[in-house]
Amino acid sequence: MILVYDDTFDGLLSAIFDSYLYKLDSVEIRSVRVYQPEIFNETQEVITDEIKVKRLQKKLLQLFGISGLNKIFKAFLSESQDVENLLFYIIKTSISNNKSILNDAANDIVLSFDKLVKKVHREKHRMEAFVRFHLIEGDIYYANIEPDFNVLPLISKHFKSRYADQKWIIYDLKRSYGIFYDLKTVKEITIDLTTQNKKGIYNTIQTGQGDKNLLTTKQLKENNYTNLWNQYFKSTNIESRKNLKLHIQHVPKRYWKYLSEKV
Amino acid sequence: MNYERIKEKLEILADAAKYDVSCSSSGSKRANKNGGLGNSNGTGICHSYTEDGRCVSLLKILLTNHCIFDCAYCVTRKSNDIKRAAFTVQEVVDLTINFYRRNYIEGLFLSSGIFKNPDTTMERLIRVAKKLREEESFNGYIHLKSIPGASDELMKEAGLYADRLSVNIEIPTKEGLKLLAPDKDHKDFIQPMKAVKSNIEIYQSEKRLIKNTPIYAPAGQSTQMIVGATGESDKDIMYSAHFFYEKFKMKRVYYSGYIPVADDKRLPSIGTAVPVIRENRLYQTDWLLRFYGFNIKELLNEDQPNLDMDIDPKLNWALRNLHLFPLDINRCSKEMLSRIPGVGMKSVRKIINARRYRKLNWEHLKKIGIALNRSKYFITCDSTYFEKKDLTPLQLKNKILQESSSKYSTHLNNQLTLFS
Ligand code: SF4
After folding, report:
1. Do the beta carbons of residue B47 and residue B103 sit within 8 Å?
2. pLDDT digit string (tens) for B179-198?
3. Do A249 and A210 share a structural domain?
């Protein structure tokens, strides 16, 4: 039996809940994102249900504590292939043992779970560090990102409490959605970027060839800050200690695209 | 804002500030107040890394590089023929706020050459911090340098705005200081540390009684020592460090391999390599003292005044104490687990957790991620296979070095790549 859920965390919890509710055997859980109909397997679509989510969450909190549950959520955001069934297994085994298996650092399943959590956690940290805002129309601080994992839900709190007095948008170009803080709350948004010749919003003229004269005074001013930052980055380096290998280990090249000091 | 002029100042004054290795923005908890700007959440973030692999977390600049002193080891010294510049208070405030809003930095680290006299300098640094806090509602991280010789009153005020204060002792021995900074007095360094330490204690005890007592330097104090400028031993450095940790409750002591900045007979000549390996060994020693429960005398003493550059200090200690090993991974205490070479504190925790589920064998230990190439000679586990134990310390050291040559030879890392 295949349970197909809506690709949200709540959807996954609902699916797991259903497997218990209907006492389903040999269940596989799949996201609509990757699901392809199979002829020999019975399929059931899961309906995300808040009440089921709440009930299972309560049980999970009991078993794993808040930090364990957060880990499970992080692993989920890795979007890695078959992560649903990994999580399903961990939850199932812990429920039947009535004890979390997550501290068993020598267990293979837990090991691969820990790896996922670590990767997502690292990406969360990286995004908190590597987001580079620039000021755009409407006095909004805007940043483009392309994280390896779906970390917007994880970083939203950090940015909200830090930049409480400025409007900001962090936009995930890979997943085509962003979060927008309007001085009150953080909302998910999508921006129509199809008219742009380069995906995302930049501090340059979109149509021209980046002719400097076409920049508004605001944009020029904005560029000045980028340049000052780049100057700082250059001046704070100590040439005689240069260690590019270490540098790249800390700031892998795939992130350079949106780091003003690396452009 | 005159962009070109600011850029030039930034070039000069960031360059002059870079020899201070501390860029930490951790250890402070400052919530975002009244919907203002920023916070410090305790851990600190590295927003970028320089090409030499160091964390960029703060806007680290000098207010000015004009200085009335002539410390031989310092680029900013009076007799050095370099371009001088000075920021205004407002310029530093604007740069900090604008960098912060763009998520470039966690805050400001402001130091300065000493112009006119210590108090005038300290007072100007405080003005920047005060303006940031009071006019810009800035809750990000502020690290101010305590200027040697500044008055107790100013140090008291500084801590009301800064998260961290630091005086760099720079030269680990009094004799060295006399030689290289003859017009500076050792007690001028100590006095501001004392003032800050006692203020921290006063405010903390008041806080216990009165809830809305203002916070005072919540991230504490730090200091820095230059390594390899005066022929001091590792023991000199670490005993000094130990003194500052104990006596002044320092949060951190930093070790900075000397980068030659002058042709001066008293100092290594320009072009001499920066002692990065030594620096790294000192940091490892520092960690053993702070987190692994080691006593300084176990690591450095009369018989052993210098660290072994080939191997890390924990392995070195273990080789001198082979009679304590092997330890049974499945039974030994947390304290002893943390003394096994190749086992870091993270692994200690994992081992303790995992051995509740089952007895651990080599396979398990490998999965947990402990560095078996070193640890296997010092432990037993749920297995009948053990490394032979009849090697002398020297034989064992060579064996380990051979088996892990790549790790020890080329990896020059001045950030904390410590015990895996
Ligand atoms: S007082 Fe400070 S800035 Fe001036 S020369 Fe000495 S170390 Fe350098």
Report:
1. yes
2. 888 888 888 889 999 999 99
3. yes
Contact: B52, A111; criterion CB under 8 Å: no
Task: State phi, psi for B300 to the nearest 5 degrees.
Answer: -140, 130
Q: Which CATH architecture has domain B3-299?
A: Alpha-Beta Barrel (3.20)
From B114, B122, B145, B189, mutation site for ligand 1 pocket: most ligand atoms within 8 A of C-beta: B114
- Strands B107-111 and B58-62 turn out to be parallel
A240 vs B37, B45, B274: nearest CB? B274
Same domain for A184 and A246, yes or no, is yes
**Are the beta carbons of B48 and B58 closer than 8 angstroms?**
no
In B63-151, DSSP assigns E strands to 107-111, 141-145
Please tell me whether residues A30 and A8 are part of one structural domain.
yes
Cβ contacts from A onto B, under 8 A? 155
Token readout for A29 is 């859980």
Rounded CA separation A97/B17 (Å): 57
Q: Give pLDDT tens digits for B237-254.
A: 999 999 999 999 999 999
% of chain B surpassing 70 pLDDT: 96
Task: Choose the final residue of a domain: A56, A90, A120.
Answer: A120
Choose, out of A135, A229, A259, A260, the residue to mutate when testing the contact with B (most B CBs < 10 Å). Answer: A229
- What is the per-residue pLDDT across B59-102, written as a single tens digit (0 to 9) for each? 999 999 999 999 988 999 999 999 999 999 999 999 999 999 99
Asked if residue B146 has its Cβ within 6 Å of ligand 1, the reply is: no
Expressed as residue numbers, the domain containing A237 is 131-262
- Pair (A115, A136) in one structural domain: no
Q: Are residues A239 and A140 in the same domain?
A: yes
Residue A200's pLDDT band (cuts 50, 70, 90): confident
Q: Do A161 and A95 share a structural domain? A: no
Q: What is the ipTM of this complex?
A: 0.90
